[in-house]
């Protein structure tokens, strides 16, 4: 049966789709390297988003980067180009990184979801749960010094909380089993709509830079 259809049937029955054993929770499977992980993501059918995506958006950047920036999910432009943060929000993200002395090419950029939710709706809890093991595997390979979660949706999914972004920022959190230090800031798309909060985002970036310097 078509995996997306199977997912829909199971969801209608209130059941979660199975996840193949190769996708060990926590992404701790031995031996997976970047090319293998990328091809697994490209072939992924764990959730119904596989039916509507143009392509998966794996992530981009320096595989030896110290910084891992994590957004929510690909938008329309990212779905078309196969790269995260390539639209207007991506340009602002690049400027934010430059402000703390980092070129886009020096960091690694990924999302909680590897596929675009139709209409740019928020990721569902099931989609996030099915997709997060891929991010965990990326983290296991990258071993970043710091993670920067941009936006409420990314932060809440990474930290498994429903605490507001306003209360999550300006603190050092730790991600998952790896306990990578994680700092939260505003999503660049939000900052495009609310430029008065750019000053707070600047404070967050300086805070994150200080955390990274201490690790
Ligand atoms: N917003 C995100 O959260 N991620 C992207 O890749 C693009 C826009």
Compile the SSE list and pairings.
Layout (H helix, E strand, L loop, with lengths): L2 H10 L21 H9 L17 E2 L5 E5 L4 H6 L6 H12 L8 E4 L13 H18 L3 E5 L1 H8 L5 H4 L4 E3 L4 E6 L2 H6 L4 H17 L1
Parallel strand pairs: 2-3, 2-4, 4-6
Antiparallel strand pairs: 1-3, 5-6
The structure holds uracil.
Description of the molecule:
The chain is of the alpha/beta class. A hairpin with a 4-residue loop joins strand 5 (173-175) and strand 6. Helix content is 42%, strand content 12%. Strands 1-3-2-4-6-5 form a 6-stranded mixed sheet, with helices on both faces. It has helices at 3-12, 34-42, 76-81, 88-99, 125-142, 152-159, 165-168, 188-193, 198-214; strands at residues 60-61, 67-71, 108-111, 146-150, 173-175, 180-185. Mean pLDDT is 90; it is low at 1-14 and 16-28. Residues 71-75, 78, 84-85, 89, 111, 189 line the site of uracil. The site of uracil has 11 residues, from loops.
Q: What are its keywords?
A:
215 residues, alpha/beta, 6-stranded mixed sheet, 9 helices, 6 strands, 42% helix, globular, binds uracil
| Poorly predicted residue ranges | 1-14, 16-28
Number of strands: 6
**Any ligands, ions or cofactors bound here, and which?**
uracil
Distance between the ends:
48 Å
Reported for the largest beta sheet, the result is: 6 strands, mixed
Counting helices, strands and paired strands, the structural category is alpha/beta
Q: How large is the share of residues in beta strands?
A: 5-15%
* Rg of Cα set: 17 Å
Mean pLDDT: 90
> Number of helix segments?
9
Task: Tell me roughly what share of residues is in helical segments.
Answer: 40-55%
SSE succession: HHEEHHEHEHHEEHH
Shape by Cα distribution = globular
Strand order of the largest sheet: 1-3-2-4-6-5
């Amino acid at each position: 049966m078509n995996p997306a259809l199977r997912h829909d049937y199971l969801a209608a029955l209130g059941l979660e789709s199975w996840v193949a054993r190769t996708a060990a929770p926590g992404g701790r499977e031995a031996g997976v390297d970047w090319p293998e992980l990328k091809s697994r993501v490209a072939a992924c059918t764990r959730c119904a988003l596989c039916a509507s995506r143009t392509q998966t958006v794996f992530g981009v950047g320096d595989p030896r980067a110290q910084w891992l920036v994590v957004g929510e999910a690909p938008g329309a432009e990212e779905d078309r180009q196969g790269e995260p943060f390539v639209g207007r929000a991506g340009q602002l993200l690049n400027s934010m990184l430059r402000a703390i002395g980092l070129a886009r090419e020096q960091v690694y950029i990924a999302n909680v979801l590897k596929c675009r939710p139709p209409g740019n709706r928020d990721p569902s809890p099931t989609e996030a749960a099915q997709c997060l093991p891929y991010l965990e595997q990326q983290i296991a390979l990258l071993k970043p010094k710091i993670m920067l979660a941009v936006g409420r949706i990314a932060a809440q999914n990474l930290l498994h909380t429903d605490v507001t972004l306003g209360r999550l920022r300006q603190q050092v959190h730790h991600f998952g089993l790896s306990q990578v230090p994680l700092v939260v800031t505003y999503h660049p798309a939000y900052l495009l709509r609310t430029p008065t909060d750019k000053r707070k985002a600047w404070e967050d970036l300086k805070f994150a830079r200080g955390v990274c310097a201490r690790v």
